[in-house]
Amino acid sequence: MKSKSVVTIAGTITAAILASSCCVGPLILAGLGIGSIGIFSSLEKYRPLFMIITFAFIGMAFYLTYRRKQDTDD
Description:
This protein is an all-alpha fold. Helix content is 66%, strand content 0%.
């Protein structure tokens, strides 16, 4: 796997986790029995930014996966 692909995949996963942290975080805390802590709700204001970053990385991953390969006839 090329380093661009690894960076793109890692960036996509990181951005997706950050984009959903405002919703998933409280669910995890509620599952642990800590229901009244709203730590992750403070990330709600950054959700549009995280979503833009997520879509950018997904678009980059799609482009790098399905672009035409250059023929190198040596």
